[in-house]
Amino acid sequence: MDRQELLDEYGEWAEELIDDYCSGDVDQAERFFDEFYCGKHEDLEDFAEGEIGQSGVYEIDNFIYQYIDWDRLARDLFISDYFYIKEGHYYHVFRNF
Does an H or E element contain 84, and which? Predict the structure, then answer.
């Protein structure tokens, strides 16, 4: 896939991934989409809740679930485990490799 095909498929926001995270390497950007892309999200707190709270990886008791600060957890996740590219009011989330 060439640069324009990648942009046609994902949108102009993907240019930031290609240039800033993949040093212009379109093949690497395509690999990021295939292996690390976690989708488009309206806010990072909902992403954190879905990724951690409802993924099935962690068993969180319903009683404890209500006390989790999802905003704070989202901030911590994006310190090293994930990154995002903002497009308007959406966040395109990737796992760090």
Answer: strand 82-87
Owning domain of residue 37: 3-95
Start-to-end Cα distance in the chain: 21
Give the mean pLDDT of 12-22. Answer: 94
Q: What is the pTM of this model?
A: 0.84
CB 29 within 8 A of CB 14: yes
Distances (CA, A) of 54 to 64, 67, 86: 13, 15, 24
Give the residue among 36, 38, 65 at the shortest CA–CA distance from 53.
65
> How many structural domains compose the chain?
1
* Choice among 10-24, 47-61, 66-80 with the minimum mean pLDDT: 47-61
User: What are the φ and ψ backbone dihedral angles of 64, each rounded to 5 degrees?
Assistant: -75, -35
